[in-house]
Every structure is written in C-alpha cells, then in structure tokens.
Specification:
Elements: H1 2-24, H2 38-46, E1 50-61, E2 65-75, E3 78-84, E4 92-96, E5 101-105, E6 110-113, H3 116-123, H4 130-136, E7 147-151, E8 157-162, E9 165-175, E10 178-187, E11 191-203
Antiparallel strand pairs: 1-2, 1-11, 2-3, 3-4, 4-5, 5-6, 7-8, 8-9, 9-10, 10-11
C-alpha cells in the first residue's frame, strides 16, 4: 500500500509539471491591429465634412511662444475657430468661408482678409497653415499636393511631410468606427506647434 501511494503521488507531480511546462510554451496572443487599408481609411476620413474639436494649441517661434485653448467648428467650407489665450487674454474668433475670413477680437475689433493665415499672423504672430490644418486635423494629407507619408501598424498616418511642414501624429482616438488624431506636432523652419484634441464631434 505504501508503494502504491508513493507511485500515485509521483505520477501526480509528473502530470502537474508536464501541464505547467506546456502552458509556459504557449505564446501570448498578438495585439490586434486594424485590418483597414490606408485607401479605405483615407476615403472614410474624407467623408467627414462637418465636425467640431475642443483642445489646446501651443506655438513656438524663434521670437516668441504662446498657447491657447481652441474650439474649431467646420461645416463643409465654412468654419469658426475660437482661440482663448491664457487668463482670457487676446481671445480671437475666426469666421471663414472659401473666399473670406473675418476675425473678431476680445476688444471688439473686426478685421477681414482673404485667409486665416493672414489674420492670425497679424493678431498672434503665428503663421499657421489653417487651410492645410482642416485636412491634417483629420489625419489626411492636403489633396492634389505633393506629400510623403509614413504609416503606423494600423495604417494611420504617423508622419506627413507636405508644403514645407512635418506633421507627426503621436496618438489617435476612436470615434465610432473612425480613428481621429488626438495629439499632433506641426513643424517648419519658422515654427513648431503642438495640438492636443480633447474632444471630437462628428455630424452629418
């Protein structure tokens, strides 16, 4: 009886060791990545014409630096961009269409120009390519313009070189079935800008 119990105990130990050894050799499952191709993702993003973002933007140039909260509402070719500086200073609102942009400042001044770039340069000293940004914000290159892109494992743009600027996307957020940028850096020879998007809203 003693020999039988000893044999039984030994068998149990061997079986347990074998099971543990088998478990140790099983590789963990690979992280899931999107199977969506860039062409499919690009078409999906291009269909987003009406959207709104809330976030923060910081700009650094060789002469100055500053930051502001940003609210941007886009309806096809029409947009409203509100910038709120530190402690409520230098607030500006841009209302634009394809051919005209009007800027309203916190002191009641209203100025119009042909582009948002001109108005922001006058008021803030920032030479931001706003006409490009409405594409870059969505993770898209500007159409019909030379560009070079590098993509991440999910076939989203990681780095974009276009129009003399380098755009780097460090994070995305999912909005339904769409991945949209939530953190990006825009850099040229004249400036460096960081944009953090806290909230995306997409409408029909």
């Amino acid at each position: 009886m003693h020999l039988t119990n000893k044999f039984f105990s030994t068998s149990i130990v061997v079986l347990l060791l074998t099971a543990l050894s088998s478990c140790a050799t099983i590789a963990p499952p690979a992280p899931k990545t999107s199977a969506m191709s860039w062409s499919t993702r690009k078409a999906q993003l291009a269909q987003i014409l009406n959207w709104q973002i809330n976030g923060k933007i910081a700009v650094t140039t060789s002469q100055d630096s500053g930051s502001a909260n940003i609210d941007w509402s886009q309806r096809a070719q029409n947009y409203t961009i509100s910038l709120y500086g530190p402690l409520g200073a230098n607030n500006v609102t841009l209302n634009g269409s394809a051919n005209k942009v009007t800027m309203q400042t916190s002191n009641g001044q209203t100025v119009s120009a042909g582009s948002a770039e001109q108005l922001l340069a006058q008021q803030w000293g920032w030479k931001l390519p706003v006409s490009y940004l409405k594409y870059w914000i969505r993770g898209l290159p500007v159409p019909n313009m030379p560009q070079q892109s590098r993509y991440d494992d999910a076939q989203r743009i990681a780095t974009l070189n276009q129009g003399g600027f380098t755009v780097q996307y460090s994070d995305y957020t999912s909005k339904g079935s769409v991945d949209l940028p939530s953190r990006m850096t825009i850099q040229s020879a004249a400036l460096k800008s960081k944009i953090v998007i806290y909230k995306w809203n997409i409408s029909d």
